[in-house]
User: Fold these one by one.
Assistant:
Number 1:
Amino acid sequence: MQKYVCNICGYVYDPADGDPDNDVKAGTKWEAVPSAWTCPICGASKENFSPE
């Protein structure tokens, strides 16, 4: 699955891991991550992420 990287801080969203601390289950594809989700490191919005 495609990983996405935060253009602000470099955090990598890996769909295999998800973001369970923020209610995004492991296996959640990027397209299915809620639009209100923000980077757990810097708080950037999804628009600030690019494919890795």
Number 2:
Amino acid sequence: MRQKNTIHYWHTSKRNMKHFFKLCAVISLTILISLISVYKSPPARRARGGSALPGHASCRSLFTITRAPDNNLWFPEMSEAIRRVRHLIQKRSSPMGATSEDYRRLGELLPALLTIQDNNSTNGQGGNQTKREPSATLRSTTRLGATGGVLPYVPCTIAPFDDPATVTACLRKRLAKGALWIDFFGDSKLRVLFYEFLRRTDSEYHYRVKLQNSTKRYEELRLNFGNLHHDMEATTDLEPRLRITFSFRPFVEMAPSLVRESAELRQLGKWARGEERPPQLLLLGYTTWMMQRMFFVYSHDAYSYIMHMHRAVVPLLQQISQKTRVLVIAESRYREHAVSNLLKNNRILYGDASIDWSAMVFLYYLQQYKQQQSPHTPSRASTAHTTPVTWSQDENLHHDDPTPKAHSQTILDHMVPREADGGVWWWDTGLPLNMAAIGECDELYHRGLVSIPAYNGAHLKCGDFHHAGTATLSDMVTMLFNLMCNSLLGAHNTFCCSRGVEQNKI
């Protein structure tokens, strides 16, 4: 009887093994086909370490969380990611707004860059355990690098652009169309992103950065003059028509009656009215400097000032976004255990509740402005859909002539606003990346590892209470290069910001 059962078990196991091998073969074939579809594209646009995800390879979805990828092959937690993404989108579009906790829960799905070892050992003779200080190992890659360009809340693959030569090749193509001006407009959160953007290609371009009273090489600037509170302009001899600027604008005007007279609003107004040429790419962010007003006024008054600022800024940004690409960057979040956090009331000034409220109000006014635009009246953005307003090649970089010269574009370029994806883009896909880093900083703090390089280094930047580290900033710059380059370089249509998916809509 035992022998018969053994034979039956052997046959059953053999059939199960055959099914198992067939399943493995199917999965392997699926992966192979996906990989071939990726590697048919030029090497510079491959998402290394992973495969392209199927689905809608839009561009706006790279910056604004709209839905999760369709394929669950690469993320076992994809069903949970879909649930969390839907929950965030629903809350973000409701009066209550999304919260930092919603983004933190998405950040929990991302791969860890930090590994902590307990370093406990057991004595073999007496069985006594020897306790040592824990240690930590920090991966030098970013989270996009760890996932091969796949995020559980972005429905397209993100190309790496980790080779400076690839970026410069893209910029040469773009500059062949005319001068290119990129402006980082806002407070220190924009400054650190400006620095990271320059760092990616400084080995090729050797930027000179013009300050108020001097000019510095980029590397000297970053090491010795990092926390400057004034404007900077980076240029390169290799591409004289490339201009990358940081406009320090803290948005700190307190009196509601004077908000429109502030330097920030005056400049935005000139761009909105067409009195000056706007940059081809405008990145804007502000809030924390206004939060500092709580040092001097009641909290409800400070919130009122922020509300007035948002109400004045939103219409101008919407008008600018009809002729240039505008990205408003969601604020990075507060690090409660940062070494630089010397003031106990910083939690009130810069805490999650304040930043969440500010974002909710900004998005509310953004939605209100859109609803006020009559769908029966053709807007300037609709006109730009058929004949996009661009700046001709014979214009120099300095806006002496404020009148744009329009000409039609034949290929889809996501830097040019169109009816399908026009308007202000709210950039919140970097938030889960930053929240994941904050979670790892908290882990190091609770384990008493605040003195090790992983805590104090630039990669996580745990010692800074509100600026993102280079692990997050680098991934955000990668997203920007996807926006600027993928359509020009002919990326496969599973990549974000490619021209293949929406080509027939033009």
Number 3:
Amino acid sequence: MQGSNEEKKVSLVLGSGGARGITQIGVIQYLVERGYVIDEIVGCSIGALVGAAYASNRVVELGDWMKTLTKAQVFRLLDFSNPRFGLLKGQRIIDKLHTVFEDVNIEDLPFKYTAVATDLDREEEVLFTAGSIYTAIRASIAIPGIFTGVAYDDRFLVDGGVLNPLPLNHVTKKGNIVIAVNLDGLPTKATGFVAKLNPVALLQESYFAMRRRLSTLTLAYYKPDFTITIPHDSAGIWDFHRAMELIEMGYNLADEILKAKKDSSIKPSQEIPSIDR
């Protein structure tokens, strides 16, 4: 799957995982600085959002905005809904994102972009490869029970990570270097901590363990060229106020995994401003 040294074209797969997905901004910065040409992005949930910002040439602005967020500002972005349908409407977040990058049709982007959502009725994945990029983002980030689902084309759509937290199976450019950002790495906590959890936390940890196993099986089957793994306990789902730290983490982990491929003689092939680290 290796590309030429001149181009080093990449299919980048960005997984789901809440605020841990901010690390993907740092990964993108690292790839661009090292001359990798991101020729395709496949993302779900936060990965669909970060990938959309990059495809719109606004990922730096997304990172800069996130770096300004405090806990109080994150809370103010939460527009509570009728709990029968989900705790949050999600519209306030989408409205704010519109000030960072505009809505575009996916087919007009400069490279292949795919966002993955889940049709909960049919229990199947739904791919967004055309149409409004914000429709794709909103469907892909609709965490069940947290954000209200999206009615779309006679379907009820929720977060793509429900069925496929690391959608490697939807890479189409097979000649590219395939790089996956797995947000479901093993936690750094010592074993034995789960015995001390209350029932709700224990249920949550069980769900996380299922996600990790699903991601592990996906990685074993599809075998990307490189996997950048983010520890599961590196950030909570709403820890967007830690953006600076998380962008730095993603950059450093990308460097750790890809450092054997460094070549300072190759200049970046895509224009993108540097992200302050």
